[in-house]
Design a protein that fits this description.
This protein is an all-alpha fold. Helices cover about 75% and strands about 0% of the residues. The protein has helices at about 5-10, 15-20, 20-30, 45-55, 60-90, 100-115, 120, 130-140, 145-170, 180-205. α3 runs parallel beside α5 (about 60-90).
Amino acid sequence: MEISEIIKYLSDSKEIIGLGLWAVTFVVYAENGLFFAFFLPGDYLLFLTGVFVGTGFLKYTIATVLLYLFVAAVLGSLTGFLFGRFFGSTLENRPDRWYFKKKHIESTHDFFEKYGNQALIISRFLPYIRTFAPILAGISKMNYPKYLFLNVSGATLWVGSLVGGGYFFGVQFPWIINYVHYVILFFLAITTFTVIKGYLNIKKS
């Protein structure tokens, strides 16, 4: 299988959810802290997982799903933090590759400059920034207890709101399962708008 085909498959949230909760858990873990996994779906994967649980297509209790994905988000970001703390300088000097873009580090740095420590919580809801924020926190040698608090707080809000929201829609409006593609397009539109707006604000400043 070509690399482009692997990336396309891993970016398909329906395919990932179809593999089961362990696959979703791994993707959430990777996207939250492994710099080469920034392209993986995050927001709409969580939302659709909640929808699939609410409609009964994913045979797990909502409590189990929330626990797995919360732990994955916390451990993923912790991995990124520790990587940044011990190997950050290597990453900053790494040339661009298909799996790594230095511009993501730079935009994350600007994001930290604007929002400070709160960036670790806000970044949970932003693609790319979500992956590189823990790494940058590690590079800057952020106080560990403070980082752990922000990490847990951000994971709670991110997983709780998106999975919980998806579950609510799945239970109340089970027909939404027939419009999964529109849900993905909706999240992609929000993501694209957020990234472009952030880029323009940074460029302006």
